[in-house]
Amino acid sequence: MRFFKKFECEVCKKKFSRHEQLMNHQEIEHFKNSPYDCKECKENFHSMSEMRDHLKKNHSYKIDR
User: Fold this and answer.
1) Is the domain of 39 the same as that of 65?
2) 39, 60: one domain
């Protein structure tokens, strides 16, 4: 049985047959130095403050500190 590689990495365009493989690839290859990720759009950030700024600006979040 042949598996179709329908899950494409947005960063490098490499394709995978399973979503889990894609997520693993992205975590290891692209996001290892960006530990903070936005749950809304999956963008990654190097610091919590960068992510907070992103949330406020792009997703209209009001964050209390």
Assistant:
1) yes
2) yes
